[in-house]
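Document type: protein sequence-to-structure record

Subject area: structural biology

Format: plain text, a pair of labelled lines:
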Amino acid sequence: MAMPARLAEIVEEFADLPAELRLEALLDYSRRVPPLPERLAGHRDAMEQVPECQTPFFLATELGEGERVTIHFDAPPEAPTTRGFAGILSEGLNGATAAEVLAVPNGFYTALGLDRVISPLRLRGISAILGRLKRQVGVQVEARSAGPAAPA
């Protein structure tokens, strides 16, 4: 499975855990979601909502120098499994290149064993989070490669 090194380490950590400890590990990642930067805090309108999630969940990505990706999540503490997945993505993908993010397999959460510890409805939500994140990165890469519009 092609993925950034830190995300691969997280997958390996989960794979080494007994099934009964995976949910606990996911909850630990829910506490690792970094706070939003000031420009996004309280400004969900500047982020994309993921309506497939059962709870209000918002994300924003930025493509920086060297095509390095920064990801921001707004996920309520009352949704610890979804927030935990956001924590995994944040820790595993922040600072990765756009190409690395776009290469992450869509169903990589099965390698984490999450499909055995959370409901299919929650899985649908986390799958949508990754899909929207990758779409945002792809749009930014495409816009950057198109360059500025030529003067008329």
In short: The longest strand covers residues 58-63. The mean pLDDT is 91. The radius of gyration is 16 Å.
